[in-house]
Write the structure tokens for this entry.
Amino acid sequence: MTKPSALLKTLQGILGCGTGAEKYRLGSDPQFGLMAAEKIPDRWVSTICGYCSVGCGIKLGVRDGKAVSVRGDPDHPVNRGMLCPKGLTAHYAIHAPDRARYPLLRRENKLTRVNWDRALSVMVERFRKIQKEHGPGAVAVVSTGQLVTEEFYALGKLAQLGLGTPNYDGNTTLCMASAVAGYKRSFGSDGPPGCYADLEESDCIFLIGANIADNHPILYTHLERNPHKTVLVADPRISKTAMKAGLYLPLKPRTDLPLLYGMMKVLIDENLIDAEFIAEHTTGFEALRTFLADYTPAKVAAITGLREALIYQAALTYGRARAAFTGWSMGVNQSTQGTATVNAINTLALITGNVGIEGGAPFSITGQCNAMGSRETSFTSSLPGYREFDNPADRKELAALWGIDAARLPKQRGRAYPDIINDIVLERIRGLWIIGTNPMVSFPNQEFIDDALGRLDFLVVQDGYHSTPAGARCDLLLPAAIWGEKEGTYTNSERRVSKVNPAVAPPGEAKPDFDIFLELARKLGCDRELFPGWESPRHAFDEWKRVSRDRLCDYSGLDYESIERRGGIQWPCPDGERRPSGPVRLYENKRFPTADGKARLWCVPWEPFPESGNRQFPFVLNTGRTVEHWHTRTKTGGIPLLNNLAPEAWLELNPQDAGKLKIKQNQYVSVVSQRGRIERIRVRVTSIVRPGEVFIPFHYAETSANQLTFNIFDPISRQPNYKQCAVMVEA
Ligand SMILES: Nc1nc2c(c(=O)[nH]1)N[C@H]1C(S)=C(S)[C@@H](COP(=O)(O)OP(=O)(O)OC[C@H]3O[C@@H](n4cnc5c(=O)[nH]c(N)nc54)[C@H](O)[C@@H]3O)O[C@H]1N2
Ligand SMILES: Nc1nc2c(c(=O)[nH]1)N[C@H]1C(S)=C(S)[C@@H](COP(=O)(O)OP(=O)(O)OC[C@H]3O[C@@H](n4cnc5c(=O)[nH]c(N)nc54)[C@H](O)[C@@H]3O)O[C@H]1N2
Ligand code: SF4
Ligand SMILES: [Mo]
């Protein structure tokens, strides 16, 4: 935290927070009604953006206890002063009028204010009653990728050992699960190998199912600084990122797996592979070679709709590169073959030696600000520190670190998020605690989850806003402090651990999630065992340092002060300050955390999507994001600067289809699937989508794409197939 000098204040006036233009806008600032002079902060707090996983450094300007301004941190290595539109307006979300201020308990069908003591007593009473009658697993917890790491670490212990339910998962299963499962199967552990510097050093950057121009805009700037690159983009839709591609691969929806196999076959046939790497560091190559015989360029061209020559060109560009980088995101993960596709991306990198080298990596671009933190510390799909439930040595080690009997650690993971929802419908799970996620907009097939939530005996929602659709349904609402109001760390996509700082106090009686977890532990009587002597996130961080020591995600050399000083530090970091600065990659020594130290090459046959277009539902619906909004718009929907740019949902429809259906630009239409319908959505007639394909952003609760989507999941990762389902469009 720094106090600005008089000179700095003047500069601020000139540069950002008090220019004429700004003053003009501020005169009509619908949110604060502040005049320009009132927006000059009296102090700046250094922190990290709380939206996406890029992890930009932010200076949050505070005046009279209010967050009034934001600017990019010029010294931060990730963003060097730049911010995207969401980062630039982040302070508005803090003082929104619909922030949750007090615990609310449902009484006679109305949510009424209660004090914290009563709220948490009722929660413990109701959950314990359910567990007594229906077993410990009858209460489930669904959290998020948007808490600080210290909170994830505390929540894992609290849910699994305090509440004693194995059924704990997060919205990260809607997002990262396929990447996690794929990394584990290829390399023996989760953990993205590369780093952002690779985007500047690689000569072939293959973006597959990732629209970073909209969704990771500051990451995009790293790529723009690279003069030698060829950018390959595989996406059925001409996204903003595809528009910038050197080589665009407009594949048919969900045919990434055969594309990758086709590229591998070309590379093997052309001998553009790294035979030494394959022999020394992988297993399964002969089986792969045999398997790929089936994926000739001709056959792959037929499946993907790409010209054979284009498949060759993509393969040769990748194979001839000195170093090739593959970045992927939801176009890959959100599929019933998500895990298999991640394995194919890893295999492509492995057979060409593009792992653990400068500029070469199979890199999962994460989504939420701290999806990574939840992957590292949480107790959902793995035990903390990337330990495995089914590994007795891992359980024993963790139990010893915690001083508990190893028998208390579950031998397998509990129910994943979609299976929790299924079990609620089957009335096996009767109590649910939702933390920092908004399933009544974001979960696939809204009718299904609507039915599920209606069957619960007790629903607790812990959120920063009271106006979410799940909030309206709950029996108990716990008001949480959000970004800007609490302390801890986030890990970004390149494993950079950064310090998050509070700038202002939470509204009303809202509290940091961390404090809520501690108080709940006291009520449950497990605080002394699980959180001995803990008062602040720092205590959780200290314990986590010990628990992660010698693991791939080693935090043992980190401390808050050096993280802050260096603009974040990448893990693994056993050596702290002593480590020279510069990018850190995993697997530089080519040893993988598998039993034999070698990575696995997987062969999983491609399968067509079960719900491809048919006569009644002829269109394939694709869903995704736009730069202005964040997910379910709890934060961005109330920020005029963003919302005015994208105030309502839209349907992208190709001109040919619009002609056939006699639909005009800007007309309102209905969209229908086997599961639900959107009554009224505005049409954008555009060649961004091909004939037979349509796109809807999923951000809008009132026009929810998830009324239509299919609740069908990857069998391994349990991630939903959000990116394709069959719909019809009614004029
Ligand atoms: N502005 C903004 N930024 C965000 C977010 C946000 O809500 N708003 N959310 C954050 C989060 S949590 C996440 S997970 C990331 C997600 O970041 P992205 O994955 O980039 O986001 P999406 O728009 O969901 O999907 C990416 C692309 O996948 C393409 N796609 C669809 N089907 C297929 C297919 O079959 N194959 C291929 N190859 N591509 C396909 C879509 O056309 C789309 O362009 O963004 C993060 N950043
Ligand atoms: N059709 C379709 N659906 C999708 C996707 C898609 O591409 N297509 N993408 C999926 C993906 S990748 C994701 S990540 C999900 C995201 O879906 P959600 O997780 O439902 O989206 P958010 O709007 O980010 O919800 C976060 C909630 O947490 C609250 N919150 C924010 N900060 C805090 C905090 O510090 N503490 C607490 N307690 N609460 C807080 C916010 O107010 C908000 O209500 O959506 C998924 N749904
Ligand atoms: S790119 Fe992501 S982290 Fe950076 S300012 Fe934008 S939303 Fe925030
Ligand atoms: Mo996500």
Confidence is low (pLDDT under 50) at residues 1-28. Residues 6 and 520 are 46 Å apart (CA to CA). The radius of gyration is 25 Å.
